[in-house]
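re: that chain from earlier
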Amino acid sequence: MKTRILGVTYGAGVIAWAALLLGGCLSAPERVAQGGSGTEYTNGTLVVGWVSQSDGSAARNARVWIRPSNYLRDTSLADAPLPAPDGYSDSAGYFHVDSVPFGSYTMEVRDDKGQGLALDFDAYGLVTDLSRSTVNPLGSLEGTVSEAPVASAAPAIANATSGSAAAIASQDSVRAYVQVIGLNRVTRADAAGKFSFPDLPPGIHSIRALSSRAGLGIRQPGQVIIRSAEATRLDSLVVDSAGTENYATWPYARKIRIHASSVGVVGPVADFPLLVRIYGDDSVFGKSDGKDLRFAAADGRHLAFELERWEPATRLAEFWVHLDSLPPGASAPAGSDSGEITMYWGKPNAPLLSDGPAVFASFAGVWHLSEAQWGTDSLATSDASPYAATAFGHLAPGNRRAVWGYSGLFAGTQYLMAPGSDSLRPAAAVMLSAWIRPTATDVDGGEVASLGDNYALRVKPDGTPMFFAFDDAAWDGHSPASIRKWKLCEAKGIKVMDQRWHWLVGMADGAMLRLFVDGEEKAAVPFAQKLAYPLGKDFWIGRNGGDDNLHDFRGQIDEVRVTRQVRSAAWIKLAYENQKSGSTLLEFR
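^ sequence. v structure.
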């Protein structure tokens, strides 16, 4: 059930209780871990409600979790205990969670008697009143994950693992997982593909299966009904296999040559997301529905990909294809053969195998900002990395065309915020990147993106780009820093306020802070200490993570990424040459 509350009409008991909260008479619980920020109610809505037992009595001290409705718990937390709740009900059954950004959420409530509930709702307005909810005995789910059947294996991959359920997890390094969308639930299947969730709240839940084995995609989420105090069995959960697809049965194919050496990249490049653009090609758009596109290496191996954009009406499409390394020849000296991959299409009824987490497996956050619903209303933009940290907020209306696809448009008061996680707070190294087209800044500059006020990309009022990281040797990891200092890395002499698109990359590599502009290193300063995070936990786009309202961005921002891995100069150069307008890196044959 979706409950959209606009902050207008509430029950008398709840509104009086909420008024006490807003007046500061009651203490607030911990901030919502996957959807809130700070303790100021102006940062979002105040979610309130009342929880009862089935007999109508108050459900006391029940735990409350609130997660974005598309939240997926990371597979590294499979079978781990539930995290700390975002709030508790009091002795009368009332609960509140403050500063929840506007958006769609799932709330889970659990008491200490084996009862619970799950509720979908939209957060909007000053107060989001969920009124009365009732907990009931939990149910359970068990089942088996299997691979989608295939007719035969391609000769180049004839030794691939077979399509049985047991084959998914037949090696110690390979795991199959099942996630419950919107809840803190992920579990790992055993060697036979069997999985179980012993304690799910009653209701209709969306679940999905995925595998760590190369060549396995994710089937579109399915739904399962969990009934109170009952066990549910599901033996039809599948992952789609690309590892055993026979691309000889795909009617159309085209070589894609990668001319890395022609753009000045001759060094090795590994773990690279390659942007493949398709423009006005009737042979593709006339024969494909977008779901059947595949990419393969020279030896026939399936290459994981993510479909970001498919617009048959305008004959435009964009894919991100993961390369473990550049194909042989791609980065060889000029004049030698270029490396190649192959694109296939035209297979009727082929399932969509778009898999962002596989393409961006080594990233801590990837926000394409390509969602279709934009404007002054609330917005949720998904994270393509495995951590699924959806960003919520507001964007300005207007032209959002970017170097490719669509961007976020900011006019000084808009921002996006993704809940912080350990993945975004590495201790040793971090790289933050974004495409920008700034038009103006606040008097103190415009924040492109920042993790709290700990590291950030910023454009100064005169158009100078900079990257900074928190630098305080006195920080002991426990108490607030007495003197706040930041190490600044500015690309002096470079101006990006010129109505053009620019790609900024800020990197702390354990020895230096480095700033790259349009694929070239433009500044570097010593920075050998560990990264510290005393100044905020959440990730902000278009506004300073300290929420100081002094560094709001004006203009367009696109493709914001965070990674904990240091990338080489060759990697950064290749990424720019691949993504820039008018790129000549790829040749379709």
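The CA atoms of residues 470 and 486 lie 4 Å apart.
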